[in-house]
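[Automated response] Your request has been received and processed.

Submitted sequence:
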Amino acid sequence: MTPSNGSEKSISGDGASTITAEAIADLVSGELVGDGQVAVSGVAPLDRAEAAHLSILSSAKYQALFATTRAGVVLVDPE
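Generated structure:
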């Protein structure tokens, strides 16, 4: 995460404004597919997410939304 004051790195919510896809993948021990430098600053559902949002695909029934989402980062349940 990048702190808003730029002084030191933080993985907590205190003072943090963005986190990269690479950092998210590391935190959840996930496989990164795509650009690890994409930064997000919020969370939103697949159908309302924009480029600066993280979203989650946890069920195959939402694959149509996944195909059209504008989320910058999507966590996908491997099952």
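Summary generated for your ticket: The CA atoms of residues 29 and 54 lie 16 Å apart. The two ends are 28 Å apart (CA to CA).
If you did not submit this request, please reply to this message.
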